[in-house]
Amino acid sequence: MIARPGRVEGKVAIVTGAGSTPGPGIGTGKASAVVLAREGARVLLVDLFPERAEQTLEIIRSEGGEAEVFAADCTKSADCEAMVARAVAAYGTVDILVNNIGRAFVGPVVDLDEETWDRALDINLRTTFLASKHTIPVMAAQGSGSIVNVASISALRGDGTPAYSAAKGGMLALTVDMAYSHGRQGIRVNAVAPGHITTPMVHSVTDPGPRAEFMDALRNEAGLLGTPGDGWDVAWAVGFLASDEARWITGVTLPVDSGVLSVAPLLMAGHLRSVPEPE
């Protein structure tokens, strides 16, 4: 049997939002960090709440991987600059950046206040801009790098989260433009668009009870496969796009959605009429 190195063996990765929101399941950032470590990367685990990233660190170290936690508010340029500096100081460079920070804000545009709108764009889009701004010079200096932005199918179809959808749509546009601007520097920039996966963040915006259970079932049934998706499904896509196996792929958005973009309007139209109301 031929011993094969991991997909990102010897590379250095930064994963923002590397902890999970408290609750059942696993978030996309936590899963992505673990997958990259399993595939041979040394990982800087960045999170506004370092105690959450410590849980990710525990998993990686228990499996023999190498990582460390860095506390940062990625809506702030100075924190992003310090994040990159720490990765370079600890591991020598940055080969992979996973922009994973995100938070959904539910409600139609007429019910949104300006503060919520601004916060949605800060959390979901400004963080991607600033983390990329400070990471790209390191990648450009070495002539290689891979950025993977974790967006959402909400950017591609409506689901009642206009501020979140707008921010993630901006992320997709930013993905294409950065791929255009930095491709000749050896930097690839791609995005994944998770579908109706079940993660701790999803549960955090839905009160427990019949409605939450119904929405879990709806997410499971919405796609062509009729099976549940979770943070691991997104992480495996992130791992592929970050690796040299995807060396000729840039500027693309990869849906990880069980085909829901093809069928959701038809399937959900019948379901939504019977969504249980909160008690």
Task: Fill in the keyword field for this structure.
single chain, 279 residues, alpha/beta, Rossmann fold, disordered C terminus
Ordered list of secondary-structure elements with their pairings:
Blueprint: E1 12-16, H1 28-38, E2 42-47, H2 50-62, E3 66-71, H3 77-91, E4 96-99, H4 114-142, E5 145-150, H5 162-182, E6 187-194, H6 200-204, H7 210-221, H8 231-242, E7 253-256, H9 260-271
Parallel strand pairs: 1-2, 1-4, 2-3, 4-5, 5-6, 6-7
Helix pairs in contact: 1-2, 1-8, 3-4, 4-5
Tell me the β content: 5-15%
Rg estimate, integer Å: 18 Å
Could you describe the largest sheet, including whether it forms a barrel? 7 strands, parallel
The strands making up the biggest β-sheet line up spatially as 3-2-1-4-5-6-7
Mean pLDDT: 89
Count of runs of 4 or more consecutive helical residues: 9
H/E series: EHEHEHEHEHEHHHEH
Task: Tell me what you see in this structure.
There is one protein chain. With 279 residues, the protein is an alpha/beta fold. The chain has one domain: NAD(P)-binding Rossmann-like Domain (Rossmann fold). 47% of the residues lie in helices and 14% in strands. The chain contains nine helices and seven strands. Strands 3-2-1-4-5-6-7 form a seven-stranded parallel sheet, sandwiched between helices. Helix 1 runs parallel beside helix 2, helix 3 runs parallel beside helix 4 and helix 4 packs parallel to helix 5. It is globular, with a radius of gyration of 18 Å. The C terminus is likely disordered.
